[in-house]
């Protein structure tokens, strides 16, 4: 691998550091000197209107950031990703979530094989199955219609479909019930199934590896719940498959995985497996077979509209010039704050109740991708990498943690995501509330940017001892992402925007955004500790603190 010059020694980096050292730009002054920035600092992609005029930047900042992107090879790495090169170095894999939304006639090769026909074959198989469930043609073991769909998965095999199901609820088949089980805490499966009839319930076991302990444990318990609950006098227990599978399981369990062997071992009919491939990262997978629950919910046509939305942003990221390239700009703005303002976090604040799980989804996308501290060649990084991503839908956050954003001591860059229209199915009275929601949306970014000076506070007749308390510093940077309506296509556009933003940042920081070794140690230790909890077994090498805690746990448990 070619030697990568130390990032902080690059002239483009030191130029940015010098630029930053010239002082903190004030948004009031920037707008006064250049009102045109309100129109100029806008980028449009698909249905997304992205306004970054309230960022602490000037034309010079942008030019310097773009020079950094060029110098660090962001564009070359981007092209290598789209070409199917193995840019996930530690796992030696291609990174081709973009192939999941490629059009039927596209050609994307991995090891000389065009993968697009495989992608569409699985999409077609998913569509056929989704239609059969939606129409009632696919029935449970006792012949009853499927009314409930329970997705069992975790991380990328849960967050995407769960988030998108919430986001697109108005587009879902309302007569069906959808639940998402991820936590190995048995309460999750219990609450998800306690009011369901097994005869009407379909389980979708989603796991790329089909070895994830949480998912396999929950799927095993779900199988027992099904077989115990089916009111057929136990005839469903007759073994039909070679691997000890079960007739009932075949009608109530399907799998989404890359691992046919493990799926079969679990007892799921391989015909009921929907495949994806190792070049799809878990956190980049909900537009693959992992989206089956979503496809059943919204139907294949809407699912394809969502894929079209992804593709709009993929094409834009691949071809738009640097100065109008939305994911590039968002990625570079994040670097500006992360590395030159020492911002530790990034808030994503959607003003849509339907996006209640959006930020949780982005947490995995961003933090599992860019929460790294070694470079691609294994050397330690000596600069900040991925931020802590957090946030909940407005306006609830306004009455909880916005105080800290407005008047705390930390700089918290934030993305505000809003829509011009409420969803069509709301009553006229509820639709009218949308302007109030959006008034808050615009007011918050205004207050964050421009604050309120002491003079303005005094002019309102506020007593002098209160002036400092009621002053707002302002200069809190925000990006506003506005689109007409939360449709499947717009959701796809938003997700692809963040996927590529994360890519840009990983490329500049010279880290592998596509592995996740950091989750392994905890998994291994959990396996080791478990016998100590269940049987009180001695665990060799357990540290004194954990040993004492395990002892306390066992005392409480057995009290
Ligand atoms: O948390 C680690 C991780 O490997 C994620 O990357 C992945 O999305 C999740 O576990 C679930 O993995 P699987 O789909 O293989 O069950």
Automatic annotation (TrEMBL):
- Catalytic residues? 368, 399, 523
Instruction: List localization entries.
Output: Cytoplasm
Q: Which PANTHER family match?
A: GLUCOSE-6-PHOSPHATE ISOMERASE (PTHR11469:SF1)
By its UniProt entry, which HAMAP family does this protein fall under?
A: G6P_isomerase
What top-level branch of life does the organism fall under? Answer: Bacteria
Q: Which PROSITE patterns match?
A: P_GLUCOSE_ISOMERASE_2 (PS00174), P_GLUCOSE_ISOMERASE_3 (PS51463)
Report which reactions are catalysed by this protein. Answer: alpha-D-glucose 6-phosphate = beta-D-fructose 6-phosphate
As for what it does, the entry says:
Catalyzes the reversible isomerization of glucose-6-phosphate to fructose-6-phosphate.
Q: Does the keyword Isomerase apply?
A: yes
* Molecular function terms, GO-annotated: isomerase activity
Naturally occurring in which organism (per UniProt):
Streptomyces canarius
Pathway note: Carbohydrate degradation; glycolysis; D-glyceraldehyde 3-phosphate and glycerone phosphate from D-glucose: step 2/4; Carbohydrate biosynthesis; gluconeogenesis
Q: Which family does it belong to?
A: Belongs to the GPI family.
UniProt keyword list:
Cytoplasm, Gluconeogenesis, Glycolysis, Isomerase
UniProt EC number = 5.3.1.9
Its recorded name reads: Glucose-6-phosphate isomerase
């Amino acid at each position: 691998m070619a030697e990568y010059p130390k990032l902080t020694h690059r002239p483009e980096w030191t130029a940015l550091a010098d630029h930053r050292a010239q002082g903190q730009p004030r948004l009031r002054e920037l707008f006064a000197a250049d009102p045109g920035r309100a129109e100029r600092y806008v980028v449009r992609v698909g249905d997304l209107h992205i306004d970054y005029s309230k960022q602490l930047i000037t034309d010079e900042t942008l030019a310097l950031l773009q020079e950094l992107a060029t110098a660090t090879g962001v564009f070359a790495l981007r092209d290598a990703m789209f070409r199917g090169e193995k840019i996930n170095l530690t796992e030696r894999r291609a990174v081709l979530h973009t192939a999941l939304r490629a059009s039927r006639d596209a050609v994307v090769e991995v090891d000389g094989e065009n993968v697009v026909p495989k992608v569409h074959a699985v999409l077609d198989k998913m569509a056929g199955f989704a239609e059969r469930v939606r129409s009632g043609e696919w029935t449970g073991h006792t012949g009853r219609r499927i009314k409930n769909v329970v997705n069992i998965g975790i991380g990328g095999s849960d967050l995407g479909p769960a988030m998108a199901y919430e986001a697109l609820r108005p587009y879902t088949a309302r007569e069906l019930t959808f639940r998402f089980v991820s936590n190995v805490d048995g309460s999750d499966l219990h609450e998800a199934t306690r009011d369901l009839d097994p005869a009407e319930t379909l389980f979708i076991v989603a796991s790329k590896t089909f070895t994830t302990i949480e998912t396999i444990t929950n799927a095993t318990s779900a199988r027992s719940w099904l077989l115990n609950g089916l009111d057929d006098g136990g005839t469903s227990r007759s073994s039909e498959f070679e691997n000890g599978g079960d007739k009932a399981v075949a009608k109530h369990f399907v799998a989404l995985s890359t691992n046919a062997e493990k799926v079969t071992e679990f007892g799921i009919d391989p015909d009921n497996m929907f495949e994806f491939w190792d070049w799809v990262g878990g956190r980049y997978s909900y537009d693959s077979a992992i989206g089956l629950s979503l496809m059943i919910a919204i139907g294949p046509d809407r699912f394809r509209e969502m894929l079209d939305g992804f593709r709009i942003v993929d094409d834009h990221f691949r071809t738009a010039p640097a100065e109008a390239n939305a994911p590039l700009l968002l990625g570079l703005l994040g670097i500006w704050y992360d590395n030159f303002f020492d911002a530790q976090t990034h808030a994503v604040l959607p003003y849509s109740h339907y996006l209640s799980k959006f930020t949780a989804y982005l947490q995995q996308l961003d933090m599992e991708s860019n929460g790294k501290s070694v470079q691609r060649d294994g050397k330690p990084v000596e600069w900040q990498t991925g931020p802590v991503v957090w946030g909940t839908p407005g306006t609830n956050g306004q009455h909880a943690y916005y105080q800290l954003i407005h008047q705390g001591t930390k700089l918290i860059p934030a993305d505000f995501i809003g829509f011009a229209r409420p969803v069509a199915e709301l009553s006229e009275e509820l639709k009218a509330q949308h302007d109030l929601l959006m008034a808050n949306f615009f007011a918050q970014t205004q207050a964050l940017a421009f604050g309120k000076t002491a003079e303005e506070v005094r002019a309102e007749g506020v007593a002098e001892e209160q002036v400092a308390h009621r002053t707002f510093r302002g200069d809190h940077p925000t990006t506003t992402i506005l689109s007409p309506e939360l449709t499947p296509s717009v959701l796809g556009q938003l997700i692809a925007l963040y996927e590529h933003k994360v890519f840009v940042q990983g490329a500049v920081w010279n880290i592998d955004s596509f592995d996740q070794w950091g989750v392994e140690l905890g998994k291994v230790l959990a396996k080791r500790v478990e016998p100590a909890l269940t049987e009180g077994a001695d665990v060799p090498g357990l540290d004194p603190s954990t040993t004492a805690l395990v002892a306390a746990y066992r005392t409480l448990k057995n009290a």
